[in-house]
Amino acid sequence: MRAIFRPGDPKDLFQLQRMTVAITLVSVITGFLLATQLRIQQNVVKDLAAESKENLGEIIRDLDFEVRALAKEEKELELRLLKYEDSQTDNQLIIKESEANLNNLKKFVGSTKVFGEGIEINIRDAFGAIAAYDLLELVNEIKSGSSDAIAINGIRISSKTPFEDDPDLGVLIGGEPAGAPFKVEAIGDPETLMQVVGMLGGIKYTFTSYEGVTFDVIKRESVTIPRVK
Amino acid sequence: MLPLFGLVIGIILGLVFKIPVPAAYIKYLGVATLAALDSALGGIKASLAKEFNDKLFISGFFSNTIFAAFIVYLGDRLGVEPLYYAAIVAFGVRLFQNLALIRRMIFKNWE
To answer: pTM of the prediction?
Structure first.
């Protein structure tokens, strides 16, 4: 539609009024937009300009830290997602892993009877030279060889088993008298355990340095160790 | 005179009613403002050239403003940042053309 104005024509006067109103209305909106844009832009610039150099440095550091933290979180989430995806496809593996963990825990606390390959140590003590401390040291040495379970004279050794010396009863293991000869059984890799126990200047040397004490180690294909009483 | 008065009123309103706009939208508002300014000048030019159509003018004003902001948004979403500059250049050129025409028409009417 094309508008041509003729001065004095009432129809054109009405058209002129509409035009003025429309342009004024648009001008108001444009002015409003301009002012809003100017105000926001000024605020952004002012916010940063008002900060000292130290604060700006701190802001940059904070932002950098935030970016790194977010990147780290993203990686962690990605890893977790991958893990969940894997676990969905391989539930059997998780069950097996859980069972293995449970068995390890049972072995650790000694709540179950254990059997497997390992070693047997026979210690003879003719004059009662061996004290509780020596046996505790021997147990610690065997544990350092990644032994799964240890028993002395059929008494299962757990992490809480006490070793005491009694003037009348001799050595007490877990409150039970355990006199010589001592039969120490340990489950684990026989080669490693043999090396740990027979180390030059090691625990074997300590024991055999006592008068009347013999210390013999043999590999065993099957050792059965009872549960903790 | 009335459109100029309207522009001043609009600026005052914008400064008085501090509408909160997130800093992230500054770019969109800026281009929309340019589009609005272009439409307003286009309307003034059309009125001076006696070619004014209020329906075309009002609809053009709103559609240009909204579409300008949308183009910039689209550019951001698609990773085509130059769309923002394209909008600025397009509106900038039109603004100067309209201003030049308005100036000529005003001088022509005086003569």
So the answer is: 0.44
